[in-house]
Amino acid sequence: MFVIQVTPLIRGTQLESLSYFSAVTYEVGSFVEVPIRGKNQTAIVTEVRPVSSTKTALKAATFSLRKLPQQPDPVILPLSIRKTAEELTKQYPASVGSLLYELLPPDIRNGSRLYPTTDVSEHFEETTPQVLTARIDERYTTYQSMIRSTFAHRGSIMIVVPSATDVTYAHKELAQGIEERVVTFSPQQTKKQRDVSYQKLADTTSAKLIITTPAHAYLERSDLIAIIVEQSASGHYVARRRPYLDHRTALMTYAKVTNRSILLADILPRTEDEVRRRSEQFLTYGEEAKRVAFAAPLSIVTQKDKPKPDVPFQLFSQELLVSVDRALEARGHVFFYAARRGLAPVVACIDCGHIFRCPDSNTPYSLLRTHENGEEVRWFVSSTSGKRVRAADVCTNCGSWRLRERGIGIQTIFDEWKALRPNVPLALVDNSVAPTPKKAQKLVDEFFEERSGVLIGTQIAMPFLSRGVDVSAVISLDAARSIPTWRADESLFRLLLRLRECTAKEVIVQTRTEPDDLIIHATRGATERFYDDEIALRDMLQYPPYNTFILLTWTGTKKIVLDLGKPITALLEEQEVQYYNSPNSTDQKTQRHGLIRVDSVSTEELADLCSKLRNLPPYVKVEINPERIV
User: Fold this and answer.
1) At the N or C end, where does the chain have fewer CB atoms within 10 A?
2) What's this model's pTM, rounded to 2 decimal places?
3) Are 95 and 236 in contact (CB under 8 A)?
4) In this model, does residue 182 exceed pLDDT 90?
5) Backbone angles phi, psi at 119, to 5 degrees
6) Burial of 93 (0-12, 13-18, 19+ CB in 10 A)
7) In angstroms, what CA-CA distances link 517 with 288, 500, 525, 530, 534?
8) CA distance to 153, 293, 343, per residue, from 198 (Å)
9) Where are the alpha helices (DSSP H) in 110-245?
10) Counts for the chain of helices (H) and strands (E), in that order
11) Is the four-CA dihedral 119, 122, 127, 130 of positive or negative sign?
């Protein structure tokens, strides 16, 4: 007899796992029909144990297990996917079942479609990851060459991109002349379009180019021999739910298990990838890139104007105004990058210094403006907790009405530019006016349909600038680089390079501090010099890739988090753990962290630790190399 643990594939279910007993065993990864609340539902087998090994637990249980009906010839996930999940358990503190579940496409996870059957084929490609550093136009020229070469060898090739917008761009750039051999999977597809994609994927009469987001990147195809990870440094590759899987790691593991080649490509690949390339753990695709050349120069404008009582400082420098006016006169398009949403990231009282904070997260409220029934409404919004309340008119601490906005938000930039140039077509794209990619695409399309104009956007506008603009500007470099992450310098440098690659004439960066080495490297496109500095800093601080960060997080009142931490401390008593509270914690809501650093050379230590961390209580959130550790 066996105890079979399964994960139901039901749309919107809260059931993570169920257990049944069975007279026959099933392979992990088998799709079975299980009785749930009087109905048979599809589920995936995530664990199989003999009854003899679980007698104690079964006797102590307050419920009895139901019998799993015998399954005639169940569909089983390909061995390559199961092996990938098994290998990932050495790098993630998650079960094989939860990792398998994460690798499944959403329409298979929710039970609306079975995993497509496929033939098994052996491959003999070089599995060592290759790294390509180049502008987007050069990268896509490289992809076209790789597609022709792969098709010539009667093989299929997959390009994995971070978002639905990038699927559209990749299809436009690569599908010309091979439309019938292109298969796309996108979150924006309708059910009918998705059905067509699955039908084309199942057609093995000719090799295919598969363009997909990570959600459908693990659909097996026997003739697939090469995988390309486009924009490999994008944060979209990290899942937002347990087990917080990094799909770049998963795809490299998948390529190694299946003997397929894999290419990581970006304007600035992650520093971790560069370190491994330099140490020859990864290979260099093409020639080593010491610097990247751009058509648009990058100009630094250091603003030194003095603030006034009612006007904190001048938002647009004279140099910026001259360049933008010149571009608009030539019927060009201009992009302003804003790092913060809303009117301002902080609201403070002038009299007592009180800063308005969210009571749940203790982080400063952002001030956001909306329009309801034709009237302007202002809100305090916390990006950490999501809490949203009406903005106060007076200080809650001293009653003063002298409240001031601190910092620059995108809506403030919009207001000031509209006042300066009221006749210039103006568009704004952030997550308040464009909550979906479809809405953002519509706004950007309308912007480019104008003969000229200005688009003001946050980070979410960046993927939509592939058509190119004439002039772009970072309104406040100081705001852009104040993100509390250990990747801050790398993210900022990549932002500046991406602005340069989508701009035709000039990129302007406004700052109130003296330019440092990072900015100088960005003006020269000196990627090698930037990496030299970043690698030296990470080596000194023992940041990734020299150490692997494992961050444990749990939340409660000040007393409860200490009680909740006792079993964690007991489990990890032999491990060096750095415990600390989030700086935004309060007595009523304290967020406690435990940071573990594991030497990246010691893969066995990481695997052993992951095995131990699987025994942590479910209220503990476990992340591997998260963007933020405070």
Assistant:
1) N
2) 0.90
3) no
4) yes
5) -75, 155
6) buried
7) 22, 18, 12, 8, 11
8) 23, 40, 45
9) 136-152, 164-174, 191-202
10) 18, 27
11) negative
